[in-house]
Structures are given as C-alpha cells and as structure tokens.
Specification:
Two copies of one chain form a homodimer.
Chain A (H helix, E strand, L loop, with lengths): L2 H19 L6 H8 L4 H7 L2 H30 L5 H14 L2 H13 L2 H26 L5 H20 L5 H5 L7 H16 L16
The first copy, chain A, binds a DNA duplex (18 and 18 nucleotides) through helix 3.
Chain lengths: ~210, ~210
DNA sequence: GTCTATATCCTGATAGAC
DNA sequence: GTCTATCAGGATATAGAC
C-alpha cells in the first residue's frame, strides 16, 4: 500500500473516531482497525497519538480557513467596508457547509481535552484567521470598542461551534419542529441573528477605539 | 469517615478533574487520589465511573437550574410578558456567576464524550428547563416562528457554553485587551448582544406560530 | 513500509479481610 | 465503610523480522 494511501486512511478514520468519541476516548487500536491498517502504522507515519491529532486537524482546518479567507477577500473587494452579513457569511459558510460528522471534531477537541494539549494547537490553527475577521468586523462596526468586538466575536464562535457539534443538548426543540430546518436556512438564520447582535448598541461607555487614539 | 463526607470528597474531586481533563481522560485512580479516599470507594458509593459522572452533574446542575427557574418566575411575575433581557438574565446569570472552573465541566461533557453517553444525560438535566425558557421567549417575541425561537435559543446556548468553557480558542483577542472584562461586564454584553439577536427581524416567510394556528 | 510480538504501564471493577 | 490485593483486559509505543 502506498504511503500516501495508508496515511490518508488513518487520517480518515481518526477524523471520524475523534469526532465521535473524543481524543482520550479513541484508542489507536480503534483507529487502525477502522482504517484497515496495522497498529504500528500510526506511530510509523505520525510519531504519536498526539501528532496524529495535530495532523488530522490540520488537514481538516487548513482548507477550511483558506476558503474563509478567499471569501473574505471577495467581500472586501466588493465593498469597503463590507457588510457585517458579508463578513459573517465568509466566516460561517465554509464551516457550516462542510460535513457535519467531521466538523464535530472541532467542538470535541476544543472543549473536551486537557487545556495543555489544546491551547497551542487551537491558537496555531485559528488564531491568525480569527484576527483577520475581527479586524474586518471592527472596520464594519466603527461604533464599537475593541472589547465589544472581541466579546461578540467570542459569542459568534460559540454559536457556530455549538451548531457544528450537532449535540442534542436542546436539539429536541429543533427536532420537534414540523420540518427540520435546512442547512442553508440555519446559516441564514445564524447570519441574521449574529449580525443583529453585532449591531446592538454599546452598553458601556463608548471608549475610544484603540486605532482612533493617536 | 462519614459516608456523606466521602461521597462529597469524591464528587468534589470528580468535578474538578472531569472539568479539566474530560470524562474519558480522567481515571478513577486520579479521582480517588485527589479526593484522598480509597480506590474502591467510587464503586462502593456510586457503582461505576459513568454513574459517578451522572451524580457529579446532577449535584452541579440541579441547584443551577432551580435558581434559573426562581429568577424566571420573578421576572414573569414582574411583567407580562417579561422583557427578553429579563429572561436572558434569569438564564445566564446563575451560570456565568458560578465557579468557572467547575462550570467548564458542562462544555467538556457536552461536546467531548461519546454521543451515546451524553444524550440522555443532557436531555434529562436540561431539557425541561430549556423548554420553560423557550416558551417564555416565544411569548416575549410573538413576531417570531417556532423555528426561529428554537434556532436562536440554540445560538444562545452555544455562546454561553463557549464562554463557560473558558477555552482559549480565541481568547487571545480578549486577553489582549488593556484590561480583561469583568464577569458582570461579560454578562451584560452577552445579554445585550443576544437580545438584539432575538429581536432581529424574521428572515424567512413569517409562518404562523403553531399556537396561533387553531 | 508493513508486519508480529511484546514491553511497560494503566484501566475499571471486584473479592474478601478487617 | 474502608482497606489490600488482584483480575482481566486495554493503552501507547517500540524492537526487530521480512
């Protein structure tokens, strides 16, 4: 079996299983068994279980964030500053459009595992891209201070991650609907809701924005 | 050592460790060692690791949801229908006011562990309370359909859980602020943002609300 | 690159003395 | 109710044949 093939099969299996059972809850035996490769192959190709997680997330998140930036460039080229809705669409659509079963891994890893393991991993994967979007939102919402932008972006990330997780915390409510909303419907509803949230008037003293203070 | 004492010590330790390392990532040896009790005590008092998780969550979430309902009753008694802000305050303040280190366990368990283990657990713990709040929000926002209320409540839960998780996905942005926002500030910002989101106009056809269709 | 076999350690759970 | 000792199995990782 070609090297690339074995690696991909391992990554495919790891993606599925980490998403379903979490990192600590997934054994390398389960991964190699699901992938149809030998147990020793993981350590040969990736070095360790932890490095397998890193590789899995990078393969998944890399293209996702590239697509996000591509769309952000587009909306920024079309209007200056772009609309809040346009920015949110660029951020959310690639994530919500991807395979839900695999996107769940982001929520799983983000929240579940030990802080030490996750911190740098997440920051390296998302930090730079998040800053790009935060800056775009700050330009589209000049009436808000840095703290408001940062906090509201935080709320946005939480909403998105929760939806991506597909977890039934309260999906009973959603499932009880006559017909479950389509993914496009969820996306549109999310953009409209979050955009209104970003446009909410500032609750605290309108502190001068850092970039205006010169 | 009294039975109650040992059980409480185990629950205290389990709460801390599950929150830090997740369920699968925490061994019973770690729990009993941290609690200063014998390894066999967990199985004697709780039956199994899984039942220990259930007991831990019940002890944490029970009083939290009781406090939420008490506050919801208050705001409903004060105004009919109550303001969206009042409802959100009743829902969020008890959670955001609790010890962040232990509240993290909700996010950890919700997102990280296997779906089978979590589904019924979460639904039993939160389902009933969530319905009360959803109904209150629906009465405060009669212009929205059932689907909108359900989805936006979903977004709210995600934002809250993300903040409670304390995870550094993008907290670099928040940490980079001149002074980190106080918990009260975060709560107020969250209420204002989410209330504006709930009040966003309906994006789809304003389908008649189920309770109005008679 | 892939395999078997294994080293080393940890896991949840329990039997039985006290 | 608490302890020790242990069972039976699973964990990651690696050494070494092919």
């Amino acid at each position: 079996m070609a090297t690339q093939d074995t690696q991909d099969r391992i990554l495919d299996a790891a993606e599925r299983l980490f998403a379903q059972r979490g990192f600590a809850g997934t054994s390398l035996r389960a991964v190699t068994s699901e992938a149809g490769v030998n147990l020793a192959a993981v350590n040969y190709h990736f070095g360790s279980k932890e490095e397998l997680l890193t590789a899995t997330l990078q393969r998944l998140v890399g293209p996702l964030n590239a697509e996000r930036l591509r769309r952000l460039d587009q909306v920024e080229a079309a209007a200056d500053p772009p609309s809040v809705e346009g920015i949110l669409d660029a951020f959310l659509r690639p994530a919500l459009g991807a395979d839900p079963a695999t996107m769940r891994i982001v929520a799983v890893v983000l929240y579940s595992e030990s802080a030490d393991l996750v911190r740098d991993l997440i920051r390296n994967l998302f930090g730079e891209y998040a800053q790009r979007f935060i800056r775009a939102l700050a330009r589209a919402l000049p009436q808000l201070g840095d703290a408001e932008i940062a906090l509201r972006f935080h709320f946005l990330v939480g909403s998105m991650t929760h939806v991506l997780s597909g977890r039934p915390l309260l999906t009973a409510e959603v499932e009880a609907l006559p017909e479950p909303p389509s993914r496009e419907r969820v996306l549109e509803e999310m953009i409209a809701t979050l955009a209104a949230g970003f446009r909410a008037p500032q609750v605290h003293k309108p502190a001068r924005r850092s970039e205006d203070a010169a």
